[in-house]
Design goal:
Keywords: Signal. The protein is α/β, with parallel strands linked by helices and 145 residues long. The chain has 3 helices and 6 strands. The chain has a single domain, classed as Beta Barrel (Barwin-like endoglucanases). A hairpin with a 2-residue loop joins strand 3 and strand 4. The longest helix is centred in the N-terminal third of the chain and has 9 residues.
Length: 145
């Protein structure tokens, strides 16, 4: 594509194709969408899209921080040089509010199946905002800190 060498991984070219002619999705304001239950143990790697260990605790002092994956529509346009771990969204925190409460999340991954405004949460994060696992989906409102 455009003379780019995709090498062994087509990630760079896939992101470049996604970005061509697209305006980046906004990262400002409040977002509404669906939170999905994100089973991190089913991932094919020990590391997230942002390059962090999946087993790493994110809690800071007495603050509980849950890990999350941002939808690719809002994540991909900010990826630098086709390398997802360089994305400034990586490690950004947000407040997520669901029917059961409000939590602090930190984006460490990218959700391929999520629509704009959607996020994916680990089991503990999902339970904190939804109250029960149900069908694995719940309405959510969130904003970056």
């Amino acid at each position: 594509m455009n003379g780019q060498n995709c090498g062994a991984s087509a990630t760079h070219c896939a992101i470049a194709k996604f970005l061509s002619g697209k305006q980046p999705a906004s990262l400002e304001g409040k977002f509404q969408g669906q939170a999905t239950y994100y089973n991190e143990t089913m991932a094919s790697s020990d590391y997230t899209t942002c390059g962090t260990s999946r087993a790493r605790s994110l809690d800071e002092n007495s603050e509980r921080i849950y890990t999350a994956a941002l939808n690719e529509i809002q994540f991909d346009p900010y990826t630098v040089n086709g390398i997802p771990s360089t994305n400034p969204v990586c490690q950004k925190k947000a407040i997520a509010k669901g029917i059961n409460g409000e939590i602090v999340i930190q984006f460490v991954d990218r959700c391929l199946d999520c629509k704009e405004g959607d996020i994916a949460l680990t089991y503990d994060g999902f339970m904190a905002v939804a109250g029960d696992i149900g069908n694995g989906h719940t309405s959510i409102e969130w904003r970056f800190l």
